[in-house]
Amino acid sequence: MSEIRPIQWANGTLRLLDQTRLPSEEIILEVHGYLEAVDAIKEMRVRGAPAIGVTAAYAVAMAARELDSADPGALDRDTFLQRLGEAGAEIKAARPTAVNLMWAVDRMMTVAGSGVGSGAGTSMIKDRLLEEAVSIEQEDEAINRRMGNHGKELIPDGGSVLTHCNAGALATAAFGTALGVIRAGWEDGKRFKVFNTETRPFLQGARLTSWEFKKLGIPSTLVVDSAAGMLMRRGDIGCVITGADRIAANGDTANKIGTYTLAVLAKENGIPFYVAAPTSTVDLNLNNGDEIEIEERSPDEVTEFRGVPVAPEGIEALNPGFDVTPAKYVSAIITEAGVARPPFIESLDLAVRSVR
Ligand code: MRU
Known about the structure:
The protein is of the alpha/beta class. The protein is built from eleven helices and 16 strands. It has a seven-stranded mixed β-sheet with strand order 6-5-4-7-10-15-16, sandwiched between helices. The chain has a four-stranded mixed β-sheet with strand order 11-8-9-14, with helices on one face.
């Protein structure tokens, strides 16, 4: 199987596998400017915390190219950096919860500001930014493979695992986080049953995770979100493993809506609940999950699916995109630095500092 790579830079163009069209169509979206990249993130054509970060990095590189190409060398360095900063702020505002977006833009801005010599002209900065975006993409895959290696030990041979939303290759540059751990266990020769939730209302689980498992040749069983409790109580689930969009310093974890429900149910049923995420998802600036901004998406995503009504017209609906799982429900957090265990205030700090 060829690797699933949802984000590719080729011949000066960003190419995204349009995730709103999967699984029925595999359409590549060509993104020519940074504002088109912002739209692709907002519309969830590219989604998943690390994938949003990689796309944001390319968006900054494209913004630099746009600023430089109108009249090469015309902008002095300070004006160029100021305008690039404004573009960076627009990119950061595309979605609020996944901190990888802010992390990637900040990393790119640091390169633009102090990562090149003070004598570097705008054209050199632009070239350096593209190199940095490519590095962020390549590092993401390497990080996911490391996470897979650390996390696969937690998957019970002969047991079963439940995952939620999509934390696979599609949500990253390649390989995936939670799905990367499952894949690493499977490729190691372990055999276990995989369940994945459909993940209302955007159906990342049904549409994207099922598509990935099929491509990987890992048998999976799709269940409606509300079946999880029944399956856990019946003894069908050996562990739960999800990705994350932002993890506070104390281990409180924001992830796709419904994750909190799964974590509480797991605890009630004595099942370990694992989170797999790169250290770029850990936000040490936040003490706890109450400080994480939760994205509210359009109620139309709840009342319609691809334009087809699934509720009476005019009905009120609420569509929070994420929830926060308090750290007390999380058994371990798998990062590229290893498996962090409670108390996360110490183990996450150690993990982050070991790689930054
Ligand atoms: O709204 P989405 O599809 O961007 O949300 C994605 C998730 O919540 C994922 O579980 C999370 O980003 C981890 S992806 C490796």
